[in-house]
């Protein structure tokens, strides 16, 4: 028991602990703007279809950088990409405080998508490298939900501020706060983050042919379940694209008519339930396997989506969205943990890149389709479509994916 506690304490002291702290600082401020960003964009003149377009443009601008980033991550290491690109993203947040109309979002979203895509494989690889196989889901739980604790009350605080001041003035101030906290997080990563890939090549020439060859090596060395997991990530990306920009507009502006502060209370409930229950599921999945938790949570995602579109008041919206947050929380620790279980350390950058590209393509498609459905068909149609996809993903997961016999270091 003592050795287990010591090994678990290493998660807090090493890269996982540092990334949890720095992402927590970022999340504290970010949770003041992220839940309300669609309302901000609408106030700047965007339409519902424009919301889908903005999300799709952001997603499309990530696709090629993710591929490049995956190759660079396995070639040059993780830290320098994480640190440098985090600084750039911090300044992108600052620019969002000053845009005069929604059209100016387009170049900002392209830059943000490009940089975040380039960073994603290094970010994912350093987290995967810093977890131990038998505690991997618990490590992902700490990484995914530790930062949330920092921002648990941020949406409610921001919601009250928005209700009093107005959406545009308040969001401009809040984005400046995001910049300040994210910049501090970048400094801490620069000073204290440790590289996890020590045998990387500093003098190799990068060519498209070598990049393609590097990805071919990946397919030759991975388990067949890898491709099915890629499909599940793509379906999750499609679900996120369909619904992501429209949850807040459905709940506050168009159908249920919640206030911004009520939306903030729902965000607090979502965070609280995840913090209470997801670590328990993480511990259980490290002991008993991940597939059953992934399949069950995908089914719960579909059910909560149907419940959301039948909600007519704050209480029902609260229940449906809290269930949705719990199911997505369980998926968000178990799906990447199972992915890392199958992928050797020296291939993780490329594997995460391929995962990211397919998920992003699906999310981009989902954003365009979701914007069309929401504006032209019905407010409920993107959520119903996403629920059907979640039910199908649950069945595919349960029938086709098996636990690995040996988890990769």
How would you portray this structure in words?
This protein has a single domain (2-195, 208-400), classed as MFS general substrate transporter like domains (Growth Hormone, Chain: A). It contains 18 helices and no strands. It has helices spanning 2-13, 15-30, 37-43, 48-60, 63-76, 79-95, 105-129, 136-150, 154-165, 167-192, 208-221, 225-243, 247-254, 260-288, 291-309, 314-342, 348-377, 381-400. Helix 1 (2-13) packs across helix 2 and helix 7 (105-129) packs across helix 17 (348-377). 53% of the residues are buried.
Topology:
Elements: H1 2-13, H2 15-30, H3 37-43, H4 48-60, H5 63-76, H6 79-95, H7 105-129, H8 136-150, H9 154-165, H10 167-192, H11 208-221, H12 225-243, H13 247-254, H14 260-288, H15 291-309, H16 314-342, H17 348-377, H18 381-400
Can you describe this structure in just a few lines?
This protein is mainly α.
Task: Give a quick set of tags describing it.
409 residues, mainly alpha, Growth Hormone, Chain: A, 18 helices
Helical amount:
over 70%
Strand content bin: under 5%
Mean pLDDT score = 86
> Radius of gyration from the CA trace?
20 Å
Question: In angstroms, what separates the terminal alpha carbons?
Answer: 22 Å
Number of domains: 1
CATH topology: Growth Hormone, Chain: A
**What structural class do helix, strand and pairing data support?**
mainly alpha
The H-and-E topology, N to C, reads as: HHHHHHHHHHHHHHHHHH
CATH level-two architecture: Up-down Bundle
Tell me how many strands there are.
Answer: 0
CATH class identity: Mainly Alpha
| Poorly predicted sequence stretches spanning 5 or more consecutive residues | none
* Major pleated sheet: none
CATH superfamily label: MFS general substrate transporter like domains
Number of helices: 18
How would the global form be characterised?
A: globular
């Amino acid at each position: 028991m003592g050795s287990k506690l010591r090994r678990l304490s290493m998660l807090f002291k090493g890269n996982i602990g540092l990334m949890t702290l720095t992402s927590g600082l970022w999340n504290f401020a970010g949770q003041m703007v992220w839940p309300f960003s669609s309302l901000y964009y609408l106030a700047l003149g965007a339409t519902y279809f424009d919301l889908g377009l903005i999300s799709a443009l952001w997603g499309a601008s990530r696709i090629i950088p993710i591929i490049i980033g995956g190759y660079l991550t396995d070639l040059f290491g993780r830290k320098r990409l994480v640190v440098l690109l985090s600084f750039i993203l911090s300044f992108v947040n600052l620019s969002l405080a000053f845009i005069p109309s929604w059209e100016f979002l387009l170049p900002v979203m392209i830059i943000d998508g490009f940089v975040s895509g380039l960073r994603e494989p290094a970010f994912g690889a350093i987290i995967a490298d810093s977890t131990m196989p038998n505690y991997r889901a618990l490590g992902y739980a700490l990484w995914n939900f530790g930062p949330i604790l920092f921002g648990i009350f941020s949406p409610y605080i921001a919601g009250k501020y928005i209700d009093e001041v107005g959406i545009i003035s308040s969001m401009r101030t809040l984005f400046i706060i995001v910049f300040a906290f994210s910049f501090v997080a970048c400094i801490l990563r620069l000073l204290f983050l440790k590289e996890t890939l020590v045998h990387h090549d500093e003098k190799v020439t990068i060519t498209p042919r070598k990049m393609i060859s590097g990805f071919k090596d990946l397919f030759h060395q991975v388990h067949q379940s890898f491709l099915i997991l890629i499909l599940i990530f793509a379906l999750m990306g499609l679900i996120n694209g369909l619904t992501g920009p429209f949850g807040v507009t459905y709940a506050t502006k168009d159908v249920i008519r919640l206030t911004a502060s009520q939306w903030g209370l729902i965000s607090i409930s979502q965070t609280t339930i995840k913090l209470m229950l997801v670590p328990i599921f993480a511990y259980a999945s490290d002991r008993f396997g991940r597939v059953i938790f992934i399949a069950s949570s995908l089914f719960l995602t579909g059910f909560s989506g149907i419940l959301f579109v039948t909600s007519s008041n704050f209480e029902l919206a609260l229940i449906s969205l809290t269930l949705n947050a719990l199911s997505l929380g369980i998926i968000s620790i178990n799906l990447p943990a199972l992915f890392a279980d199958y992928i050797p350390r020296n291939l993780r950058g490329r594997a995460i890149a391929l995962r990211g590209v397919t998920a992003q393509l699906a999310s981009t498609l989902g954003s365009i389709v979701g914007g069309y459905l929401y504006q032209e068909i019905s407010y409920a149609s993107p959520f119903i479509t996403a629920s059907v996809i979640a039910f199908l993903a649950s069945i595919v997961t349960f029938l086709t994916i098996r636990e690995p016999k040996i988890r990769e270091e």
